Structure formats: C-alpha cells, structure tokens
Amino acid sequence: MKLKKLGAIDIGSNSVRLLITNVIHEPTKGYTYYKKSSMIRLPIRLGADSFMKGKITRSNRQRMLEGMKAYESIMKVHGVEDYRACATSAMREAVNGQKLVKKIKKATGINIEIIDGEEEARLIFESKLFDRVQPAESRFLYIDVGGGSTELTLLEGGDIVTSRSFKVGTVRLLNQMDTASEWVEMKTWIEQNVTPGSDLAMIGSGGNINKLHKMSGKKINEPLTMRYLNAQAKILSALTRDEKVTELGLNFDRADVIEPALSIYKSAMQWAHSRHMYVPKIGVSDGIVRDLYHRKYKDELEG
C-alpha cells in the first residue's frame, strides 16, 4: 500500500476550508482511495467585505492571516506532503486581494492562487461528481452556489459541454448586492443551453445544499425533489435567524445564508425544468486534492 497525504485550502466568500486527505493506492487491487483525514472550516466572510466595500477590511485581513498560520501548523502536524490553496470570487474582486496573498505568503509560506470561475468549475468536475451518487440520467446541470458566485456547468456523457459563472451568490443576496440583470443572464443561459427531458437531472454542491440534504435524512444517492425544497423554503421563512440556530441546529454563519442559497438552487432547477437534484457532498477542496494527485503523484504511486 502506498500513501500520499495531501491538503487543499478553499478560500471562499463565506468561509475558508482546509481539507486533508489520505490518498491510498492499493497495488494488488489496482485502485486508489481518497480518505478524508481532517476538514476544518473557518467562518471568515470575505465576501461581505469584497462585494460591499471592494476590499478586505483590516479585521478580516488579520483573521485570514491568523487562520493561515493555524492551517500551516495543522498541515505540519498531519504530515501533509503537498497542498494547493485557491481563492475564488471574494479575493478576485477585492482591490487588495493580491496584497493580502503576498502578506500571507511572507508570514506563513502558504502560496494562495486567485482562480477564475472556469478553473473553479474544472476543479469541481475533477472531484468525480458521479462516483458517490451514480445517477441513472445521462445529462446534468451542475450548480455550485457560493457566497459571491454561482457556477453552472452542463454535462453530457460525463463530459463538460459548457459552463458559466454568474455574480449571484448568498452573501451578495444577503447584502442586496445582486443585480436583476445578472439573474436574467443566468435564466437566459439555462434556457438557451439546457434542453428539458427525463434524461436531465441537477447536481448541486455547496455547504447550504449539503446541509439541506443532511436535514432530509436521505441517503447520499437519493436526490432532493422540488417539493422538498419548497417545503424547506416555507419552514425557513417562518423562522428567525436565532430560531434556525436553536431549532434546526444551524451554525450562525449558515443560518442567514441558507435561504438565499435555496432561492438560487430552486430558480435554476425551475428554469431547467428538472425534477430532482443529486447532492454528492463534494466541492472545490475535493477537486483540488484529486487534481494535485493526478498532476504530480499518480505516476509515482501507480507507476
């Protein structure tokens, strides 16, 4: 058995995650396993700064620095051999994003890449969306809802047909920073690129849809229906933020964004005329690990 311990840092608009994964190759079986060793999530809402003020504020810059120092130490303790750190829309749109990247690099040695929507979609596709759910359909509209953007990707036969990133996200909606024109653009894109049919299903990713799937009690290969999403929207709308925390067990930084997220998922599902949505519970960090392994270590372990 051969092992590589790899790390992925996903710097989003609503939180910052560190995933540590044991990549295990079993030569006798000819199979490679990806086993999560640790997942840590820091509730640093960079999007609230970036989308409203155009820059990361001093307090969040300091929190980011302390968080990256902690992640550096955690990766050392776990014996992480290699990692990749990626930042998405909040850091892309902040005028001082690159300056913060340099400061973190100097203080911790962690090199952060600010990636575009296309690379973000590619990394998510690398996470092997279908391995966990094994759907019967052959065409899929993949949707990843983040704090600052929504990534849409049309998949047919396991291949990417087309993809697009839209500036519609939970933190933007929460702070009324979304625009009607961007919603129209997203609706038009779906209607022009997605042909409705029984062979079409949605695949959703993101912390909010993962939480909604967990709340449903369904197995990982069982999709969510529009009926269920509508019912949850009704329940959530009747609760205050505090009640969502105490009665539903949501984290504080999840309680205020889950409704905006749900509205985005429901809209895309409605526009695509899809009946259900699979939730494999994967994301950018999973894709980062797989992409890193295949680019740098696959030949070493499997050769």
TrEMBL record:
Residue ranges of domain Ppx/GppA phosphatase N-terminal in the record: 44-294
Protein name: Exopolyphosphatase
GO molecular function: pyrophosphatase activity
CDD domains per the UniProt record, alphabetical: ASKHA_NBD_PPX_GppA (cd24006)
Database matches in InterPro entries: ATPase_NBD, GppA/Ppx_hydrolase, Ppx_GppA_N
Parts forming coiled coils: none
Alphabetized SUPFAM superfamilies for the sequence: Actin-like ATPase domain
Species name: Phaeocystidibacter marisrubri
